[in-house]
């Protein structure tokens, strides 16, 4: 599937039903994902059966996304990335099945480099979600704490350390 086909497939859908999935994750997976990744995640995005969130912003990074500190370290023996860090203002993390995540994979690289883009299973062990309650009593923003969360290597979108370019698609 290419972007033209993707946008034709979502034409007329209510983006409020899955805003991060339809508007952010889907196009990014089309552009940066493998055929296997597209086959795995696009059907659930397109039919609305899998709700998505984003895990980008961090408490100490402010609006400077390239300053993120959440780390993803490759464990080559297990073929997983082990992720540790904190995200904030994560829209709908408390109800999402999947998330799109930016994490630093090379802490020695300049800040716009050394970042990788992942799809994360929001039911994975080591994820703690704390809703941020609004003054109205409702919530859609959340804090997310990641402690030794394992992300399979096949859930990285694009090349390792190439996440900034993938994030620009998002």
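Q: What amino acid sequence fits the structure above?
A:
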């Amino acid at each position: 599937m290419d972007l033209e086909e993707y946008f034709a497939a979502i034409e007329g859908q209510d983006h409020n039903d899955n805003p991060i999935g339809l508007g952010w994750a889907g196009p990014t997976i089309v552009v940066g994902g493998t055929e296997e990744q597209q086959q795995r995640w696009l059907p659930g995005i397109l039919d609305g059966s899998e709700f998505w969130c984003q895990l980008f912003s961090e408490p100490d990074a402010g609006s400077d996304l390239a300053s993120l500190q959440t780390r993803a370290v490759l464990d080559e023996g297990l073929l997983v990335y082990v992720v540790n860090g904190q995200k904030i203002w994560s829209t709908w993390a408390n109800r999402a099945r999947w998330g799109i995540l930016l994490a630093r994979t090379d802490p020695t690289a300049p800040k716009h480099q050394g970042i990788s883009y992942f799809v994360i299973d929001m039911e994975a062990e080591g994820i703690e979600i704390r809703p941020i309650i609004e003054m109205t009593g409702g919530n859609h923003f959340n804090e997310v704490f990641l402690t030794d969360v394992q992300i399979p290597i096949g859930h990285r979108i694009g090349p390792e350390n190439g996440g900034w370019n993938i994030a620009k698609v998002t």
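Q: And what stands out in the fold?
A: The beta strands are 52-55, 71-75, 80-87, 98-104, 115-121, 127-131, 142-152, 156-157.
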